[in-house]
Amino acid sequence: MKWEENVRKVTPYVPGEQPNQPGVIKLNTNESPYPPAPGVSAALERLSADRMRLYPAFPEQTALAEELAEYYHVGRDQIFIGVGSDDVLSMAFMTFFHGNRPILFPDITYSFYDVWAEVYGIPYETRALDEQFCIRPGDYCQPNGGVIFPNPNAPTGILMGLDQVEEIVAANRDVVVIVDEAYIDFGGVSAVPLLDMYDNLLVVQTFSKSRSMAGMRIGYGLGSPRLIKYLHDVKYSVNSYTLNYPTLELGVEAVRDRAYFKSCCDKIIKTRARAEAELAKRGFTFPQSYGNFIFASHQKVQAKEIFAGLKENDIYVRWWNKERIDNYLRITIGTDEQMEALYAALDKVCGR
Ligand SMILES: *Cc1c(COP(=O)(O)O)cnc(C)c1O
């Protein structure tokens, strides 16, 4: 059709499957196996239908922003809240990566980065991870239009030390560096303290994994007041009422209950340690993970085959048909009970 000449054509990001038949063990999208903080259910009861007549507040003027500012010891003007961190990241691409030089990110990483670069027409180059799947900081210390990487990296789970993160931020004072910390709460060290020294840094986190609220879509970015203002200007030029009223109310409770949050993260870290032992016992190798998942390869059986075999047993994990990583599975850490079911299924699929 003639009208198609004027269409913006993109190849969309492909998220993990969301099967809805009951009884499935879902270890494929890094959601938390634990419910949100108890205060979230209580806040749900308090929601008022009448309040829905009104537009919600701007996210930065809400109790949620205040709670986050307090938690991270930053000013409220250093916080940007979006509809999941995908929204924060997408807005950050649009806002900060507006130059002519290519932006840089790893060749194996969150597969949304190249999608945003394409949709916004941002030139980009990837830098290959080393043989052990590690990011080489020196690769990002050449002239560029901006830098983005997750820490820990996805889907490998490999954590970079804060000194290496700082090396990248310090070498790039003329551009914005985005550190995507979707998995930082599972044992990593956050770059948030670097905000005091670097006004070109944006740290992005999410409620979707460690805070058990993927379905509510809340993400946030932390940066210097100047940087955050630019982000708000762009966001409010696209859609100003971003988070809905229930989300704002429920989100506060997830941040407020620090003890519950910590107990969930601790449980997942503990289950992850057990999973490392159980998977190693069954012939898997994997880099040490600091995420709520393990990126594992079997010494004998092909990942694609295990992926299909597990699915037949109603266990969903993630597999990418992509160079360098097509013999790996990314397995989300579930409850101990779910993991036991996984080990039993692996014994069937990989043979014992
Ligand atoms: C899960 C994930 C996100 C996006 O999460 P949201 O649900 O949009 O908050 C961003 N980056 C990485 C590396 C992720 O794994």
Describe this structure as you would to a colleague.
By secondary structure, this protein is α/β, with parallel strands linked by helices. 35% of the residues lie in helices and 14% in strands. It contains ten helices and 13 strands. It has helices at residues 38-46, 63-72, 84-96, 113-119, 162-170, 225-238, 245-256, 258-281, 303-312, 336-350, and strands at residues 25-26, 79-82, 103-106, 124-127, 147-150, 177-180, 201-206, 219-223, 284-285, 293-298, 315-316, 318-319, 329-332. The strands form four sheets. Strands 2-8-7-6-5 form a five-stranded mixed β-sheet. Strands 9-10-13-12 form a four-stranded antiparallel β-sheet, with helices on one face. A two-stranded parallel sheet has the order 1-11. Helix 4 (113-119) links the parallel strand 3 (103-106) and strand 4 (124-127). The longest helix is centred in the last third of the chain and has 24 residues, at 258-281. The radius of gyration is 21 Å and the shape is globular. The N and C termini lie far apart (56 Å). 45% of the residues are buried. Bound molecules: pyridoxal-5'-phosphate. Pyridoxal-5'-phosphate binds at residues 30, 84-86, 110, 150, 154, 180, 182, 206, 208, 214, 219. Pyridoxal-5'-phosphate is lined by residues 30, 84-86, 110, 150, 154, 180, 182, 206, 208, 214, 219.
